[in-house]
Amino acid sequence: MVTLTRAALSESVERTPVWFMRQAGRSLPEYKKAREGIAMLDACLMPELTAEITLQPVRRHGVDAAIFFSDIVVPLKIAGMDVEIQPGIGPVFAQPVRTREDLARIPDLTADMCEAIAQAVTLTREGLPEDTALIGFAGAPFTVASYLIEGGPSKNHEKTKAMMLGDPELFSAILGKLAHMSATFIQAQLDAGAHAFQLFDSWAGYLNRADYERYVLPHSRTVFDALAHNNVPSIHFGVTTGELLGSMSTAGSSVMGVDFRVDLDDASKRVQPGQALQGNLDPALVFAPWDVIASRIEDIVRAGLRHGGHIFNLGHGVLPTSDPTVLTRIVEEVHTVSSRLIASGEFE
Ligand code: 1CP
Question: Where does the record place the Uroporphyrinogen decarboxylase (URO-D) domain (predicted)?
């Protein structure tokens, strides 16, 4: 088993594994060059290019995992929905989904539609160093639904919430359909060789706990249940989810992602027994003086070792203007500090 997989299953490791959400993409000059003149969603369906972009941060930073280069709207795109990713904005749907008729227009996603995805995963595995994991992913039903219902990125998710509370039956039917799509999309990545997967519920933190548990959690649970037979580690992540961590941790993942607002020692008390943690350096700290970053790294590595299973990551995605050389230095520091602390025997 690769180091990241062992940490995700709370087994013993020689160092804390580290990767960064959004490590493939805008912070790297080699990414900008590879993507020149190619639309985002086209790049996700060109297997050689997808594999190259997925591998770029592994080569540059020496991270313990590659995150598959794709997007949460790719399953809808390959199923036939009219969606594009507009530069500087994000995913935009030609026709938002707001009625039962709209819902009926969402096509089913089948394994054979995921051929370009499977090819890209196979190519990525071929180029991956020995002890490096490939993490597949999909968007969680709620986060994907928010783009579908709003029609694009949204500040307050008002149409999504209005439907959730005003027509819970329709809302549930949409999330049920998306749960099936996310599971199919991840299954294709696992079948082609991904070692683990992450379910991104980035916008779950916009909900209060009661609404999250009633309207959203059951659909996320459906995704983890559908994939449980693969026996691979799974990670569940959302932003501003401090209040939801306890609820989200019951959805069925082996690892709970923690955003940068929550102390890892507090997160440790909120998740399920035996569940590993992932996180949680503030992405803005990448811009701070090095001694500040190094001291935060040690705090986080120590809290992770106190907890048991821990994967080091940022508390959300890499900011586009981050200096990539600082990210590389963070990876080295996590490895050095964690190896020293683990070898000291202090945390056994
Ligand atoms: O032209 C470009 O370069 C577009 C920028 C971009 C990139 C590089 C988008 C548009 N998506 C991606 C890739 C991507 N998206 C990855 C793989 C790369 C990696 O992580 O290294 C992943 C895992 C995602 C997942 C994703 N897409 C999420 C969940 C993760 C998160 O950051 O919370 C979300 C919310 C999206 C939607 C999306 N896609 C793109 C943008 C700019 C957005 C956010 C829009 C918004 O603010 O609502």
Answer: 17-26, 135-151
Q: How much distance in Å is there from the Cα of 336 to the middle of ligand 1?
A: 30
**What are 247's two structure tokens?**
């609820």
pLDDT for position 26? 84
Taking alpha carbons only, the member of 279, 344, 348, 269 closest to residue 316 is 279
The answer to whether the CB of 85 is under 6 A from ligand 1 is yes
Which residues sit opposite 277 in a β-bridge?
256, 310
Catalytically annotated residue among 31, 147, 206, 212: 147
Output the CA 69–ligand 1 centroid distance in Å: 9
Residue 215 DSSP code: I
CATH number of 60's domain: 3.20.20.210
Count CA atoms within 13 Å of residue 19 on its CB side: 28
Read off the pLDDT of each residue in 244-266 and give the average, rounded to a whole number.
98
How far is the C-alpha of 248 from the C-alpha of 242, rounded, in Å? 10
If one counts the domains in the chain, the total is 1
The residues, ordered by sequence, that sit 6+ positions from 162 with a Cβ below 8 Å of its Cβ are none
For the full predicted model, state whether its pTM sits above 0.90: yes
Instruction: Read off the tokens for 326.
Output: 């600082």
Contacting residues for 174 by C-beta, under 8 A, at least 6 apart? 97, 103, 106, 141, 145, 148, 149
Range(s) of the domain holding residue 254: 3-344
Q: What is the pLDDT of residue 322?
A: 97
